[in-house]
Design a protein that fits this description.
Elements lengths: L1 H45 L2 E4 L13 H9 L11 H5 L4 E4 L6 E5 L4 E9 L4 H7 L4 E4 L9 E6 L27 E6 L2 E14 L14 E9 L6 E9 L3
Parallel strand pairs: 1-2, 4-5, 6-9
Antiparallel strand pairs: 3-4, 3-7, 5-6, 7-8, 8-10, 9-10
């Protein structure tokens, strides 16, 4: 009788551990995307609008001076470099200011409240390299064009080697699925701002790397990539943008 009771306790302990581990795995995988999805949907309900800081214009903006002053100016009333949060959204102000993390190489996407740094020349075929970069920034695909240059600027985020890692990498880019033609994309490169507008979106297989080819297409364009659906790397969401002047 005692042995049966001990066996029961062991089995129950193991079962409870497996249940808790499964819950933790689900939260770690889908938690970040669920958070940004909830923030995004709440912002739509409240009529929140994300806008680029008006002082961040096309002339050269010294990173340590002008951007620092901008961050100080807007810190207590609106968003800065870290993008949207639930506390920001439930605040009274319905216009939220986005400030680029730097003007050396970064991206601001008002539609989804994204303001992220970009690391240049990341090899998309080197998993160890790009996973390390995606811990702290968006990745610029090695060999593709830079902003302002004729060709394709390919930026990617939210990739993973294991399902439990997927939610850790730039979860705000989950919201690229909500981008539509006409949405704005701003890139900052070497102190200058480049304005783009979305003209197309695609859902492609994860093995399709043809769009990374910088020779594809004529003229200047930007492609933003993230994984789909959240918590998997089954498909790729691609967002295409072109210079506003074209």
């Amino acid at each position: 009788m005692r042995r049966e009771f001990i066996n029961f306790l062991i089995l129950r302990t193991i079962s409870n551990f497996l249940i808790l581990f499964s819950i933790f795995g689900l939260f770690a995988t889908f938690g970040p995307s669920a958070y940004y999805e909830a923030s995004y949907q709440l912002s739509k309900v409240r009529g929140v609008k994300y806008v680029l800081a008006p002082e961040v214009n096309k002339p050269v903006v010294p990173q340590e001076t002008a951007l620092g002053r901008l961050a100080d100016k807007y810190r207590n009333t609106s968003l800065s470099q870290n993008g949207p949060s639930l506390s920001d959204i439930v605040a009274n102000n319905t216009e939220k200011i986005l400030i680029p993390p730097n003007t050396d190489f970064s991206i601001v996407v008002p539609k989804i409240g994204a303001a992220e740094a970009i690391t240049a020349n990341v090899d998309p075929s080197n998993k160890e390299e790009y996973l390390r970069v995606l811990l702290h920034s968006i990745a610029h695909a090695k060999g593709t064009a830079y902003p302002g240059v004729n060709g394709t600027t390919y930026l990617f985020a939210h990739s993973a080697d294991n399902f439990w890692d997927i939610g850790r990498y730039n979860a705000v880019f989950y919201l690229l699925k909500d981008m539509v033609p006409g949405d704005d994309v701003y890139l900052f490169f070497k102190g200058k701002r480049y304005d783009y507008t979305v003209y197309d979106t695609k859902l492609v297989d994860s093995s399709d790397v043809s769009y990374i080819d910088p020779a594809l297409g004529k003229g200047e364009r930007v492609i933003l990539q993230t994984c789909w659906p959240p918590g998997t790397d089954w498909k790729r969401t691609l967002v295409f943008a072109k210079p506003k002047s074209s």
